[in-house]
Amino acid sequence: MGVITRLSRLKCSVYAFLLIIHIPILQGEEHSQCPSLAENPICPCYNFKEGLFLECPSATPSVVKNVLSKIRGTIQSLSIYDLESSTTELKADLFPPKIRIINLQISQSAINKINPNAFTTIRDSLGSLSIISSKLNTIPHESFFELSSVEALDLQLNDIKDIQANTFRNLKLKKLNLKGNKIVNISENAFYSLEEHLTELDVTENFLEIFPLKSLGKLNKLSNLRLAWNKINSIPGSINVTIPNLQTLDLNSNQFTNIDKNWFRCMPKIKILTFFSNQIQKIDEQAFYSLENLETIDLSRNKITSIAKNIFQKNRNIRTIDLSHNHLHRVNGVFSNLRQLSEIFLSENNILEISDDAFVNAVALTVLNLEHNAIQYLQQRCFFSLQNLTQLHMGTNFLKNLPRSIFQSNHRLVTLSLDNNEINELDELVFDKLKELREIRLQNNQMNQIKRNVFSPLPGLLELHLQNNFIQNIDSQAFITLKSLQHINLQGNRLTTIGDVFPNRDSSLVSIQLGANHLSLLKNTSLAGQVNVQIMWLSENNIKVLTANLFNDLVNIQRLYLKNNSIVHIENKTFLHLKKVKYIDLSNNKLIKLSNETFFKVVSLEELYLQNNNINQVAKDTFQYLAKLKVLDLSNNEIIVLDFDISSLPIKQLRLNKNSVSIIETDSFKSLPNLSDLEMSSNLLTWEDIIQVQIPGLKSLILSRNNLTELKNKTFSHLPSLQTLSLESSNISQLPPATFIKNQNLLRVNLAFNSLRDLHKDIFAYTTILQELNLKGNNFTDFPHVALFNVTSLEILDLSHNQLHSVDFFKFIGLQNLRTLNLCFNRISLLNGFNSPALKNLVTLNLSKNMLTVLPPNFFQHSLGLMEIDLSFNLFKHIPSNGLSEAVLPALTTLNMSSNSLVQILQTYPSKLFPLLEELVITNTNLSIITSKDFENFPSLKRLYLTQNSIIRLSPGAFSKLHNLEILDLSQNKLENIPRERLQGLYSTRLLNISQNTIRELEEFTSDLQSLLKLDISFNHITKINRDIFRGLQSLTELNLNGNWLSAISSDAFRSLNKITYIDLSRNYFEVIQIKLLMSLETQVKSLSFDENPLTCNCESQDLWKWMQDHQKIVIKGSRNLQCEHPEELHGYSFIKLPSQKLCDVPVVIRIAIQDIQTYSVIVTWQSRNQNGLSGYQVAYFGEHNPSIIRGKPLLNTTARTTKLNHLTPGSRYTICVIAVGSFGPSTYSSSTPDARIAVLPEKSTINSYGDEILLNHLKPLMNDSILSKCTNVSTIELFGMAMESPFSNTYRGIADIVARRLGLFVGCIIGFLVFVVLLSALGYLKTKKRPVIAKADEQQPPQYISYDNFNVPSVEVQTTEMDINTITDKTKVPCKQE
Known about the structure:
Blueprint: H1 2-26, E1 45-48, E2 51-57, H2 61-69, E3 74-81, E4 89-90, E5 100-107, E6 113-114, E7 128-132, H3 141-144, E8 152-154, E9 162-163, E10 175-177, E11 185-186, E12 200-202, H4 213-216, E13 224-226, E14 248-250, E15 258-259, E16 272-274, E17 282-283, E18 296-298, E19 320-322, E20 343-345, E21 353-354, E22 367-369, E23 377-378, E24 391-393, E25 415-417, E26 439-441, E27 449-450, E28 463-465, E29 473-474, E30 487-489, E31 497-498, E32 511-513, E33 521-522, E34 535-537, E35 545-546, E36 559-561, E37 569-570, E38 583-585, E39 593-594, E40 607-609, E41 617-618, E42 631-633, E43 641-642, E44 653-655, E45 663-664, E46 677-679, H5 687-691, E47 700-702, E48 724-726, E49 748-750, E50 772-774, H6 785-788, E51 796-798, E52 806-808, E53 820-822, E54 830-832, E55 844-846, E56 868-870, H7 881-884, E57 894-896, E58 919-921, E59 929-930, E60 943-945, E61 953-954, E62 967-969, E63 991-993, E64 1014-1016, E65 1024-1025, E66 1038-1040, E67 1048-1049, E68 1062-1064, H8 1075-1081, E69 1087-1089, E70 1095-1096, H9 1102-1110, H10 1112-1115, ...
Parallel strand pairs: 2-3, 3-5, 4-6, 5-7, 7-8, 8-10, 9-11, 10-12, 12-13, 13-14, 14-16, 15-17, 16-18, 18-19, 19-20, 20-22, 21-23, 22-24, 24-25, 25-26, 26-28, 27-29, 28-30, 30-32, 31-33, 32-34, 34-36, 35-37, 36-38, 38-40, 39-41, 40-42, 42-44, 43-45, 44-46, 46-47, 47-48, 48-49, 49-50, 50-51, ...
Antiparallel strand pairs: 1-2, 72-73, 73-76, 74-75, 74-77, 75-78, 77-79
């Protein structure tokens, strides 16, 4: 029974299998297969594992249809691109019936319409559709209506302007790409029916101005949204719409200036948020509070100057924060308690200090990048919480030292970058805990010594970079514990000797760089044990001798650099142990001789450089052991006789230039089968010596500057493989006709600067492949056409610096392949012979520095490919348009007309244009006016140089037709102004140079200069810059205003330049630099130059000085030479380096006065100057009867100038002081408090002990006159002769207060009544006399207060916004009231 059951199951399985394999046949499907090449010659077809892939480039619809009709089965991918340009509609018959296409892409077409039935035949199979780089201006929703299987739709790079409602009805798209269109509006119901399907939407590079929140709110599955490169500046925060599953939001390169707090409540699940490259300046502290899932945020390349401490405190899952390329000054506490944070990027900011709370509890942080900031201080515990940190980058800052325990907790640090700082010393324990450190970069600092134990705790260190410091001394065994060290760089220091500093046992060093030091002596033990070193630099030192044992342990070295030393002697067998060395450079030394054992058994050496020594003696067998030598350079020595033996060496390149070789021994060059390049220029060789060079395989022979007056026919006959021959400056007056008869492979011949007058007709008869001939600097008076008639292969011919007076180009008839012809520096005044079809392939022609005045109308009329013509330094009065226009030279792209006598650009305007001319150079001519028609004929011009002329005026519309111009140079002319409209039409200009003119006033630049990147207006006579001058230059990155007469600039002048990075204002007349101007630039400019301005240095310059101290990164390169001009005592001082106490030694509190002295109170009033870093004023006092207790007011703000002390004792004398409180920087003032810094009072001091006053005993040292404080003495009015400390003091105080108030009221009323009576009497008298009222002259009012200070203070010129103390009235008096 079981057997029968098993047989039944087997039979069923066989039937099922047969049914499955026959289903495709039953359905009519065939196995997919590409058509044959005969059937399909147009569209390449590939049958991959995934299916058929078909590409149809540059085809017509009928061709595509024909190819598709021959394919049976399914096409996995069909790509149609560069469709015939006349095809503007995708018609219904393109895809034949029964064809199955899964992925369809149509790109780079002119399609602007799609038939509603275009995809009907493939609607069931189509899974993705792409119509890219076409001309669609709307989304053809009626054509997509039936494509229910399509999941991905790509319509990027079309002309779509809006997305209408119900555009995607009935579709089930998951991915939609609309990148690179012109979309300005998205309907609220644009994505109807995609609510539960669409996951990815790309609308980058469009013109949206509003975040389309309403349109996106119903897309419940949307997880990835890209809106970069639009014009969006805000996100609606009040619309009750949610995008519930959005995880990635890309808002790069929009126009955001701020981020508000309610923007992201509608997107609660965002994980990746990108605001890269906007204009963001402010971020609300609660902006990201709703994003609890946020993992990555990119805010780089904005203008953020400060960021709230708690801004990320709700984003507990955040892992990456990028704030690079902003202008942050501080990051106190911003990243604290973010326990999942692993990467922080803060490079290219202006951070001044890293505080202890910056990264507290950011325990997961692994990468911290602080490069290119302005960090000067690291607080002791700023990295204390970063126990998992692996990469710390702090290069290019202003660090001077590292606190000893700065890295105590960073046990896992692998990479540490401290390069390009000002570190001058390293504490021996600074790296004590960094056991895992593999790479440390300390190059470009100011260290002068390496202590023994600094790097000892780093057993795993692989790379140590110490180059370009000032290191003079390295302690013995400083690196001896670094057993894993592979690369050490000490280049560019001041080392004079190297002792036993490297690991000498089990050393892992692979490269040692000691170049550019002052090494004069290397001990034999210096390199002991370096068995793994493969490359070592000892160049640019003062080494004089190489001892025999110096390199004994370098058994694996491959490259050794010893050039630019003072080596005079190499001991025998010095290189004996270098078994693997391939390259030794001993050039630029002082070697005199080489012995047989100098390179004893250096059998692996392949390249040896000995040029630029004083070698005059080379032993015969000096090189006999160099069995693998390929390159030997002995140039620039003093060798006279070539008698050393190199015959057995496989040398490929031998250089003997600039010696005194006059004798070549027989057989010296007869057995060098591998030698291909031989250079022996600048010697004393004759043709007899050249015959000794018998090397059949030689390809290049350089013999320039020898004495080859008499060349024989057989001189080069033994060099059949020669391809390059240089005989420049060799006193040759004639060439025998058979000179090159055996050199049929010659490609290049240089005969420049000889005395040739003519060439024999057969001289090049056998050089049938000659490509380049240099006849420059000879005595030819006529073109040697007979000799060159049959050299049809010639491509480059140089006949410059000869004595040609005229040229008949009919004689060039044989040079059909000539591409470059140089005829400059002759005396040519006549050109003819252009009727012959010569020089058809000419591309470059140089006729400069001749005597041409005109060009014939048929000038090179057959050279239709001629692109570059140089006609400079001739005698033209204008561009010879008849000979250069499109009718003659249609391909001309570059024309140089400099240094002619041009008085106008074109004399007549040709009917034909210069359609392809891209570069026109007209410099050093007599041009004075540019007319509106001068450049109408140059529509393709990209580079126009008009420098060094006498141009005084530009006519309206002068450049209006040059829409493609990229560079316009008008420098060194005589322009006094450039009206705004003169530069209109320059839409593509990237560089505009109008420097060195006499421009006095600038008009607003036209907004047509929308692409301008660099503007140079230097060295003019400009005296002012108004606020709107640069308003239209939105792309400007570099602005040069140096060398003008500027003394003031509007503080808003550069506000619209959102991309500016470099401004040069040096060499002007600025006495005062506005801080407001600098603050408007600080968020974007990278370099700002104020060098050589006559700055006034005084108290008013404090803000500028402080700004420059805080922004050294910006000004350090361009303002180092900014010096004080005034006052005289500071003349010549560097402003940046000036101590602030020299800048302003006037006391902060200038004057103090006591007003309204009462029994228990006084009013204190003071006058002060502006002081950077000021945070407020402390008014303190003590009584002479109890000097140990100091009381006073809580800290008053910076605008306070008066206060009242209410708790004094009657009849007592007090010392009252006003003290400036703030942080005035290190060593700002010499005061009794450290760093002139007065801290805010500790909490226990703020106990309200005396009503509105507090105890201030800690201010005792400052209770005297100083730079920060001003004091005075006052006595209160006595009351009943009773002291304050009496048991009845409180009673008397109360009584006194009541009496004083009542008495004041009474007296006030009396005085008021008397004044009233007097006024009435006066008015009555005037009325009776009927005399006109005459205004009284202003009289100085007497002071209305009582003071113990008569202000006998020297006058101080201090700018202040405060009122004069003499005008302060007593505001404590009350008007008379009737009780």
